[in-house]
Amino acid sequence: MDAYLAGDPETLKVWCSEASYNVLNAVITAQLQQGIVSDCKILDLRHVDFHSARVLDNDVPVIIVTFQTQENNVFRDKVTREVVQGNEELIESCHYVSIFTKVPENADDPVTGGWKMIDLAKQFSRPTW
């Protein structure tokens, strides 16, 4: 989550499947092309719950995890560092669903243990004030 919100493509590449990485990195690239950088922060992550385990149509086993965050979503001008989107005072409560799969050929990866995120979806968010 930190890598996603901070716009960190190197960390995303480690943790995401190729398709998931391409989607998330496209957003980061578009922001950079507009001269915008993320200054988003996760203030709290809680209620991490195992939702279910399934086998997808293509025989890929997955684990579905849900969780909540408290976030401050601010984007700044790359040069001036002025806020161009968001509000430094606004904290949002966000609910996510994430889907992971174990990639056997990466099982010895010391960082991920072979786990890759194949999808991430924000279900909803609301201000906490």
Structure description:
This is Protein translocase subunit. This protein has 129 residues and is of the alpha+beta class. The protein has a single domain, classed as Nuclear Transport Factor 2, Chain: A (Roll), CATH 3.10.450.240. The chain is built from three helices and seven strands. A hairpin with a 5-residue loop joins strand 4 (74-77) and strand 5. Helix 2 packs antiparallel against helix 3.
Key phrases:
129 residues, alpha+beta, Nuclear Transport Factor 2, Chain: A, 4-stranded antiparallel β-sheet, 3-stranded antiparallel β-sheet, 3 helices, Protein translocase subunit
Secondary-structure blueprint of this entry?
Blueprint: H1 2-6, H2 9-15, H3 18-33, E1 36-38, E2 41-55, E3 61-72, E4 74-77, E5 83-86, E6 92-102, E7 115-127
Antiparallel strand pairs: 1-4, 2-3, 3-6, 4-5, 6-7
Helix pairs in contact: 2-3
Task: Describe the structure concisely.
The chain is of the alpha+beta class and 129 residues long. The chain has 3 helices and 7 strands; from the N terminus they run H-H-H-E-E-E-E-E-E-E.
